[in-house]
Fold this sequence. Notes:
473 residues
Amino acid sequence: MSAPAVTAPRHVSLTKSPDATVTDPALVRRAVRAAALGNAMEWFDFGVYSYIAVTLGKVFFPSGNPTTQLLSTFGAFAAAFLVRPLGGLVFGPLGDRVGRQKVLAFTMIMMAVGTFAIGLIPSYATIGVGAPLLLLAARLVQGFSTGGEYAGASTFIAEYAPDKRRGFLGSWLEFGTLAGYVGGAGLVTLMTALLSSDQLTAWGWRIPFLIAGPMGIIGLYLRTRLEETPAFAAEARKAESSRPKVPLREMITGQWKALLLCVGLVLVFNVTDYMLLSYMPSYLTSVLKYDETHGLLVVLCVMVLMMVAQPFAGALSDRVGRRPVIAAGCAGFLFLSVPALLLIRQGSLAAVGLGMAALGLLLVCFTAAMPSALPALFPTRVRYGSLSIGFNVSVSLFGGTTPLVVTALIGATGNLMMPAYYMMAAALIGGAAVWFMAESAWRRMAARERLKYPGSTPCARLYSPARLVSRPN
C-alpha cells in the first residue's frame, strides 16, 4: 500500500523555521560522526600507503632502481581505483534499494579487512612474487569497498543535514579524510624518526596497517547504531514495497547531464587532492631529494591547517553558495599552481611550507563544498547509485592515477613542473563544470519530499516543509 499523505506538525511554523529541514540535532551529530569516521579510516590507509611508499617499494618490489620501485608501488596504489567503479555499480544501486546505513556498515567491514590484511602479507624476500600479488589483492578489496564509501557517506550526511547548514555539516566528512591523513602521516613520521631504515623495512611498516582492525570495529559499531536517512525512508514509503527498485539505466542515461557535471567536479577535486596529499611526499623525497622527515612534517602541518579551515569554508559555502567557493578553488589552482611549485622547488623549509600551505588552502575550497554539492546533483531515488558511478569513474580515471601519471611524465620529460601543469589542466575542466552547475545552497535536495515519521524514535521529529524560504541565486 502507498504511504498516507503527511503534513507538517501543527506546532511548527513553516515560514519562521530557520532551516528548510528540521532535524533532531543529536541524530545529526551521530550521523556526521559515523560517516566521517569511516572516511577517516579509508584515508588513514591511503595516507599511510602514500607516505611509506618508498619503504613498501623495497619490501614488495625489490629493484636496483628507486624510480622503478616507486612506480611499482604507485601502480598497486592505482590498481585499487580500477575496481572502484565496480564497487560503485554494486554498492550504489544497493544503497538506493536497501538503504544507505546497511551498505555503509558493510563497506566499513570490507575496508577494515583489506587494510588489516596488508599488514599480514609476507615480504618479497620471504615468498617471492606472491608478496606483490597478495598486496594487489588486498588493494583490490579496499578499492571495491571504497567504491561505495564516499558517495554513501556524503549522501548520508546530506540527507540528514538541515538545508541551510548542509555545507557546514558536509565539510566534516572531509575533516574525517584529513584526520585520517594526519593520523597516517603522523604515525609514519613518528616511526621514521624512531626506527632505523632497516627496522622500518623489516617490520615497522606493518604497524599502521594492523591498526585498521580496531578502527574498523569502532566504526562498524557507530554505523550500526544509526537509523536510515529521512529522505530514503520517505522514498521507500512512497513505493509499494519497502525496497524500491531502481533500474541501472535510470541511474546513468536518466541522469547523464548530472553525471557529466559530477565527473568534471570530482576530477578537479581528486586530482588536486591526490597530488597534494598522496604524491607530494614522494615528490619531495624522491624527486627533489628533500629530507624525508622534514618533508613529512611539512605535509602534516599543511593538513592540520586544512582541518582548521575546513568547517569555516563549509559554513562559507552555506552563506555565499557552493559555486563561488568551488570556482575560487579552480581559479586559484589555475593561476597559483606554478608559483606554488616554484616555491616548493626552492628547497628551504619556509619556501616549501609556504608553497604547500597555498595549495592546501586552495584544496579546502573543494573539500569543504563538494560533500554537499555532489549529492545535490541527483534526486533521492537514484542519488547513491548515480553519485557512486560518477564519482568512482572520475576518481579511477583521473584522481587515483595522479601519482602514477605524474611520476611517469616527469620520468619521460625530465620536467619537474609537471605537477603544476597537471593541476592547471584539472582546474580548467573543473571550472567548466562549475559554470554549468546550478547552485544548490539554501535549497532542498532534489527529492522534494515532505517528511513525517510516526512513532517514538527521533525520526518522528523530522520533516521537510512544504515550501522553502531561501535566498535567490
